[in-house]
Design goal:
The chain is about 35% helix and about 20% strand. It is α/β, with parallel strands linked by helices and about 550 residues long. The protein folds into three domains: about 70 residues, Roll (Urease, subunit C, domain 1), CATH 2.30.40.10; about 290 residues, Metal-dependent hydrolases (TIM Barrel), CATH 3.20.20; about 90 residues, no CATH class. Strands 1, 2, 3, 4, 5, 18, 19, 20 and 21 form a nine-stranded mixed sheet that branches. Strands 9-10-11-12-13-17 form a six-stranded parallel sheet. A three-stranded parallel sheet has the order 6-7-8. β19 and β20 form a beta hairpin. The longest helix has 18 residues. The protein is globular. The relative contact order is 0.16.
Length: about 550
């Protein structure tokens, strides 16, 4: 087998190139990490239009544009398995934060997807908009993706259809099972989304109303996605005390349906739960050994980020945001909820000092961004739990925060797993304009550069070639995306060129709005989007559709 792998570069040179000729682009003299995980080899890549036309020795060929990649790695474009760029790409289609890290495909839709929406949902989304304001010109998920492509985006885009979105569309925010008619409606919406090109079905089960869905309900929706060869991807029900039980619940859906399944941002929250990772890995490996397709993704930081609602019980949030706020104003409710908040903080973070506030919608409260919960509580002369409730009321939003609750050693152990992929769980932004009005988690600017710099180059947790495989061919094959995720003749020309000795993240929790460096050139569908580390302004990104796509374009999108 080793001898065969050693022959791969030679065979590519002999058979992959087309000989003398003219190409739109030639990338010369690079160390080609083709996405397979095999050792990198020196060679050239010729691009015609949006396609890789030749790989090998192209010294006798000519390119209309030529790029010297000497001393640099040439790889397929990276896949962000969990992107929250649903609004940021509307504001700024350049996708700066991710493009400068080599991301050429943003995968959207963690539990909530930007379609299908009914008219009431559109009104709610319009009312809940924060710093970024936009008109809603779509109804279905397919229409949203087409809207982005038409508007212009630098990266390719794909999306799952979210079970929370399906529930809100049919059941609303009530904690109850769907009726038979409602269940049929949700299944129909899944079919529509899959035929429009959704990658599969997603869930985010720590948040309402997604958490109200039973395992049986999720299984039925997954059966529909499976008919279209789609996959299931889930933010599992719990990441702390019942973390292992939540994995069992997740695996049951996969075993019952045979659907390809992935765990979003695998993590163990709270020091008392860190030791559970080994058992979690064993569960996943055991399921894979039975023939199930089980994978996971992660971000490369020991801190998570979400809204303050994660600290509160489900019952106080049931019925939608307005009812949640109304309950928080009731003294009797506050007493009960306050006690639960403190228990949750102590269980997950250990202390209010490990909760960092980063996102307010109200301008008069933005001065609190970058301060810990403990600091804000002291400023207001109130307890931490009172402060949490007051901030949600005062901002009229599920205020964003960073929670320091994870183990650095566990991050390394997860990165080492061959089935682990990577997602930022953040927005791709630029350190300018409206984006500077709020803080963010550094993963939004540095997740992929941090993998290549800290964990590959400095700590050598995995090899460079293996990191590239996990960023490219593994997610593409898992999602059944055709002709992407590898450097092969006939594949779309999503290509990145970077210096592995220099790629580096710079974003920090204290100063997050800093772009990563070390990525020199990025091509998306054959168009150069990054040249010598500078964005060209090009927006050649396309909708990337799952295997269930029927080939028809969404209709009825408003102009």
């Amino acid at each position: 087998m080793k001898q065969l792998k050693a022959l791969v570069p030679v065979l590519l040179i002999l058979f992959g190139c087309s000989g003398p000729g003219t190409y739109d682009v030639i990338i010369r003299n690079g160390s080609i990490a083709d996405g397979s995980g095999s050792p990198a080899y020196k060679g050239d890549i010729g691009i015609m239009s949006d396609t890789i036309a030749a790989i090998g020795d192209l010294r006798k060929a000519r390119g209309r544009t030529e790029t010297d990649a000497s001393g640099m790695t040439v790889a397929p474009g990276f896949v962000n398995m969990l992107s929250w760029s649903v609004e940021s790409l509307i504001e700024d289609g350049r996708s700066m934060g991710d493009i400068v890290q080599g991301v050429t495909l943003e995968v959207l839709g963690e539990g909530d997807s930007w379609g299908p929406w009914n008219e009431q949902m559109k009104l709610e989304m319009k009312a809940s908009q924060g710093d970024i304001k936009y008109d809603i010109k779509w109804t279905t998920l397919g229409e949203y993706l087409e809207y982005l492509e038409k508007k212009g985006v630098a990266t390719n885009i794909a999306s799952f259809v979210g079970t929370a979105t399906l529930r809100i569309h049919t059941v609303g925010y009530d904690n109850r099972p769907p009726t038979d008619e409602e269940m049929d409606s949700m299944k129909l919406l899944v079919r529509q989304a899959m035929e429009e090109g959704a990658i599969g079905v997603s869930s985010a089960l720590e948040y309402i109303p997604a958490s109200f869905a039973s395992t049986e309900e999720l299984t039925e929706l997954c059966r529909v996605a499976k008919e279209y060869d789609g996959m299931y991807i889930s933010h599992i029900r719990n990441e702390d005390e019942t973390f292992l039980e939540a994995i069992d619940d997740f695996l049951l859906i996969s075993a019952s349906t045979g659907i390809r399944s992935e765990i979003y941002h695998l993590k163990q929250v709270g020091r008392t739960n860190w030791h559970k990772l080994d058992r979690a890995i064993a569960k996943i490996d055991s399921a894979r050994a039975t023939g199930l397709s089980i994978t996971a993704d992660m971000y490369n930081y020991p801190a998570s980020s979400t809204g303050l609602g994660i600290l509160m019980p489900e019952w106080v949030q049931e019925g939608g945001f307005e009812k949640w706020v109304a309950r928080l104003k009731d003294p009797a409710v506050r007493k009960v909820v306050g006690a639960e908040i403190i228990k949750t903080i102590m269980r997950k973070q250990g202390t209010p000092e490990k909760v960092l506030l980063i996102g307010f919608q109200t301008d008069s409260l933005k001065y609190l961004q970058g301060k810990t919960l403990a600091e804000i509580a002291a400023m207001r002369g109130k307890s931490a739990e009172e402060t949490v409730m007051d901030l949600v009321i005062d901002d009229n939003s599920n205020v964003s925060a960073v929670f320091f609750s994870m183990s650095e050693d566990n991050l390394r152990k997860q990165i080492a797993q061959p089935w682990m992929m990577f997602g930022s769980d953040g927005k791709s932004m630029a350190p300018e304009g409206v984006f500077l009005k709020s803080a963010t988690h550094p993963r939004a600017y540095g997740n992929f550069a941090r993998l290549l710099g800290k964990y590959v180059r400095e700590e050598k947790v995995i090899s460079l070639e293996e990191a590239v495989r996990r960023l490219t061919s593994l997610p593409a094959s898992t999602m059944k995306i055709e002709k992407r995720g590898a450097l092969k003749v006939g594949y779309y020309a999503d290509v990145v060129v970077f210096d592995p000795a220099k790629v580096q993240d710079h974003s920090t929790f204290e100063d997050p709005h800093q772009l990563s460096t070390g990525m020199s050139h990025v091509f998306v569908n054959g168009v150069q989007v990054l040249r010598d580390g500078i964005h060209t302004g090009a927006t050649p990104g396309r909708v990337v559709r799952g295997p269930g796509w029927t080939g028809h374009m969404p209709s009825g999108m408003a102009e």
